[in-house]
UniProtKB/TrEMBL annotation, chains A, B:
Pfam families: TetR_N (PF00440). The lineage of its organism: Bacteria, Pseudomonadati, Pseudomonadota, Gammaproteobacteria, Pseudomonadales. Residues 37-56 bind DNA. This is Transcriptional regulator, TetR family. GO terms for molecular function: DNA-binding transcription factor activity; transcription cis-regulatory region binding. Residues 14-74 form the HTH tetR-type domain. PROSITE patterns: HTH_TETR_2 (PS50977). It comes from Marinobacter nitratireducens. SUPFAM superfamilies: Homeodomain-like, Tetracyclin repressor-like, C-terminal domain. It comes from the Bacteria. The keyword Cell cycle does not apply. Keywords: DNA-binding.
Length: 206, 206
DNA sequence: ACAAAGAATGAATAATGATTCACTACTTAT
DNA sequence: ATAAGTAGTGAATCATTATTCATTCTTTGT
């Protein structure tokens, strides 16, 4: 036996793999999954198209992995915001702000994760993604009901409404057509959304 | 001049055109625009694929027209509900119920109209569709503010949240995975959504 | 230096599906 | 009946891209 995979090679391969993932991420952030061509990704990563298939079973699989990666980042941020101190309402509000803020900073990625239909494998991941959000929100809503800061309600349904209201406001076609106002002050927009959401939960004007 | 289009022919053509539109509608209601193949549509309509191109410039154009048709139906229903008697809150609630009820009865079509990304021409139509809803809701919210049954708020933003909350709950990926409960009683679901939405608008528990 | 094994390459292939167009069939007016 | 014009046909074409695989290049152990 002349050649045996060595540590050095393992690392080099891992690096190439990572580079492909990063370049895919970049492509997706630019124009979504559907417009991310294998040739473009290969070009960015400075490898041949065939090489991508050495590291990933298929385009779908590559996308599913990139989706998971991107997703994890987002969900972690929201979970983090939910772990701050304060009552359930305050924590939820912080989380919604986190969600909205990140989506506004990367609208194409947000759209890809929330709404863009891609293929069954990615769709499966998206399901998990939405469920992760729903569960996080739902749990906090329940805590809020126990704490007494939210009235009794269908926590699961409410969390779905939350995600929907935010997603629609932030990545709906109306917001995407408007010129990409990079460093514009989006606080009033976020404030209006948050107000609607918190009122929807609490039934209390503030 | 030997042949000149006669009334009879005009009607026959119009009929064929209409049949194509109806069959396209059927395909879309089944699986959305993306999976509606020209061949399938032609098959259903009992014409050759080429015939479709005698009546429509392109697939995109055909879809845009079908979208418009479907859209008009939906918006009209909501507008109708908004024209009943009662205060703004009552009328809006009736409209939301109409919206939700129709979406539940035709979830794939609702998804196609609200969320499925297709192509630029259809996307343009969707924009008009969303604007139509937004304007209807927005107008009523404004009336409600004047009437005093809603507190002052960003009416446009609130209407977007309304659409989002409903869409997510009814046609979002989470709801689509659940078994298609044909004739199940969806009232509790709709009630929960409506409650969230009305609270979001009024900031009042009821 | 050599050979074995694996990795990378990218042109060729394959699959999908919209669209075209040369042709046939039908309608109409004379 | 005939000719001119229009509608309908559907197999062939074209366009787009993911994927393959025969070949070339690298790495490793002896």
């Amino acid at each position: 036996m002349a050649y045996r995979e060595t540590e050095k090679m393992r690392q080099r391969k891992a690096l190439a793999r990572e580079k492909i993932i990063n370049c895919t991420y970049e492509c997706v952030a630019e124009g979504g999954f559907r417009s991310a061509r294998i040739t473009r990704i290969a070009g960015l990563a400075e490898v041949a198209t065939g090489t991508i298939y050495r590291h990933f079973e298929s385009r779908e699989d590559l996308f599913a992995e990139v989706f998971q990666l991107a997703t994890q980042k987002e969900v972690d941020k929201v979970a983090e915001a939910l772990n701050t101190s304060g009552d359930a309402a305050a924590r939820l509000e912080a989380a919604l702000r986190q969600f909205a803020g990140r989506a506004l900073r990367g609208p194409v990625m947000a759209w890809s994760l929330l709404a863009e239909p891609v293929d069954p494998k990615v769709e499966e991941e998206r399901l998990a993604y939405r469920k992760a959000y729903a569960s996080l929100f739902e749990k906090t809503i329940r805590e809020g009901i126990t704490e007494g800061c939210f009235p009794d309600q269908n926590a699961q349904q409410s969390s779905t409404c939350l995600v929907g209201a935010i997603a629609e406001s932030l990545v709906g076609p109306l917001s995407l057509t408007q010129p990409n106002r990079e460093n514009e002050d989006n606080d009033p927009l976020v404030d209006a959304i948050i107000r609607f959401c918190m009122q929807g939960l609490t039934g209390t004007r503030r």
